[in-house]
Fold this sequence. Notes:
Blueprint: E1 4-8, E2 18-24, E3 31-32, E4 37-42, E5 47-51, E6 56-61, E7 68-70, E8 74-79, E9 84-86, E10 89-91, H1 173-178, H2 183-192, H3 210-221, H4 250-265, E11 268-276, H5 278-288, H6 300-314, E12 320-323, E13 328-331, E14 337-339, E15 341-343, E16 346-348, E17 351-352, H7 360-375, H8 381-384, E18 389-392, E19 412-416, E20 420-426, E21 429-443, H9 449-464, H10 467-472
Parallel strand pairs: 14-18, 18-19
Antiparallel strand pairs: 1-8, 2-4, 2-7, 3-6, 4-5, 6-8, 9-10, 11-21, 12-13, 14-17, 15-16, 19-21, 20-21
Helix pairs in contact: 2-3, 6-9
Amino acid sequence: MSDLKEFRLPDVGEGLTEADIIRWHVKPGDTVTVNQIIVEIETAKAVVELPSPYAGTVAGLLVPEGATADVGTPIISVDVGGGAQHGGSVQPADDLVPALPEPEPAEAAEPPEPGAQSVLVGYGVKLGRTTRRTRRTAPAPSANGEQGHAPAQAPVSAPVPAATTPERGTTDAPERGSVLAKPPVRKMARDLGVDLSALSGTGPNGSITRDDVQQAAAVVTTEPGPARPAGSALIPSPGGAREERIPVRGVRKATAAAMTASAFSAPHVTEFLQIDITETMAATTRLRALPEFEGVRVSPLLLVARALVVAAGRHPMINASWDDAAQEIVIRHYVNLGIAVATERGLIVPNVKDAQALSLPALAQALNQLTATTRAGKATPADLSGGTITITNVGVFGVDSGTPILTPGEAANLAFGQVRQAPWVVDGQLAVRDVCTLALSFDHRIVDGELGSAVLRDVGAMLTDPLRMLAWS
């Protein structure tokens, strides 16, 4: 007897309401064990791998790849009774065959009735194999003479949304195994209707990049516009495309909502300070030679981070938050230091927990590990939650400064601009020095101009003379 269990999408963060299904690691008919990774989802904060809570046979994938599901929605059904469904009945173990069977007649491939359990069409469990099937070069014709789908594309318990139909160019399982491309790039290909197997990658080791996908999408999905008059200043885009559309999902959707809410709820003020950072650059060079920093990347950002942590200790209100419901200001006596990281999925801000308690080598290791994990798409919801103050390193993009928007729940965001050589007056003499611009945005409900200026001056003073960090720590 079959015993179907449905696994509902859990809240893997703090109050998350939905997630996108990025990639299934299993298919109907596969045997799964408890805690086996079955799916990758993208929440508003991170890409998360979900394990199976059941052991048994996958009866159906209830939400297709590329679709968005609300927390609590059933996403997969597992037959924990030991049998696999076949044509609406349990298939005995003796009848299971390892080879790929032919599709069922057309009437068996019709979508199930509303409320019915998902039924596998045309195949059963393949013994000793949980990898994806080899794609057929051409689908077998159905009974009504139309081209039917191979069993790998059997319908699930609900009609497949347009995002996964052939018209949108869904890439299937073999492409994921044979093409070099990161998960965000694969997701973009699905959304834009691009066949990854038909592309030649321009990235490292021939991997496919976002630009490759965007250029291919422009060619196959967008009609070129009318010919431009001679002498027109309009620069043609790749492939002659005039427009493209990228669905707003996951991190980018959450970031847009958070930044809009922050910009229109917290009154932002930004102050700027240009400083001589020559001594900090020299100190960075000396730190790299110390054995305590062996194998750790040391950059000026490390000393900027330490300076902001020290300044937050001297001025606790800069590390506070506004509780609108309680009409209270919450002062945190710990610093969870956020570092804005640009990734393929958008801007993500993980944070180093209790940064005030870390030594300088430990802070360097934490920053290195956190940024690497985030860029690899492996940051956990815990890494991205609970920040108290943030640094935005705009200097890596070759710009001098900016006006950072506050991370919701925080009172300040420090922008660190590029370090460049410039004329500077030192002891009454003109000299060439390493100079950068700091910009501090703060919530004017919590931080007034005097306090914001004091914090910015303190950070600037410590970067001008790093010995002050020792004196003020």
